[in-house]
Amino acid sequence: MSIVIENLEYIYGEGTPFVKKALKNINLVIEKGSFLGLIGHTGSGKSTLIQHINGLLKPSAGRIAVNGECITDGSVKLKSIRQKVGLVFQYPEHQLFEETIYKDIAFGPINLGLSEEEISRRVASAMESVGLDFEKYREKSPFDLSGGQKRRVAIAGVLAMEPEVLILDEPTAGLDPRGRDEILEKIVELRTLKPDITIVLVSHSMEDIAELVDRIILMNDGEIKLDGTPREVFRNVEQVESYGLAVPQITYFMRALKAKYSGIDDEIYTIAEA
Ligand code: ADP
């Protein structure tokens, strides 16, 4: 068991005229090593939920445990939660600031007080995970890279913390098709390199979600409305559409990717063909 969320509620602006219950009685168990997709239209509560998983927000009610440790009762330090649970924000490349790629990715591990040797190992491994050659890129400025490459540097910065849980908030937003495919390919590869890592992918792209994840959670108005495999969730066409979301078309790139890494899974393609 990796993440256990029990009776989670969150209220913004409590005691003000702008009070908003953004999460209502969320109960969710996310297994270790699973790949979960979180979908729902704008305002459904996705960001509020993921910010609880890495300790950025404190629940108004309920609790969360990560790998058996309660992270919401104040017993675990925020720094330690953030190390366990890596959150890649939307447009993470806006937070790049160091003069070299190496320094940018090393920033988190340096703050952990690790040895130089360990820092270097982690930076090299994180760069490899996102498909950036260590020797070629380590001394380059992150600002000389393409949009997709910058985003990969930002993701590497989170991976260098070696989190047990990786949450990606809209990792393909604003990228061209090539940048998108490269990022998704690296995420899928990451699972083969680190089978124990739990990944939560928040996306507006029903295609990205349908084709990659093992399980989908659909949120609406602060509640979980659907929970199942992509096939189960998207089979429910009318219900998915009633929450303002489109049922996806499957692309050939994703078929090839899925076939390469996890064996051909014809299951979900029958949705598109049905
Ligand atoms: P999503 O990520 O699915 O777009 P959010 O978690 O950002 O949804 O928002 C859930 C609800 O909480 C929305 O109604 C949103 O307007 C409200 N909300 C989000 N952030 C704040 C905030 N800082 N103050 C007040 N209300 C907020």
Automatic annotation (TrEMBL):
The keyword Transferase does not apply. It is found in: Cell membrane. Keywords: ATP-binding, Cell membrane, Hydrolase, Membrane, Nucleotide-binding, Translocase, Transport. GO terms for cellular component: ATP-binding cassette (ABC) transporter complex. Its EC number is 7.-.-.-. Residues 3-246 form the ABC transporter domain. Its main location: membrane. ATP-binding (A) component of a common energy-coupling factor (ECF) ABC-transporter complex. This is Energy-coupling factor transporter ATP-binding protein EcfA2. The lineage of its organism: Bacteria, Bacillati, Bacillota, Tissierellia, Tissierellales. The gene is ecfA2.
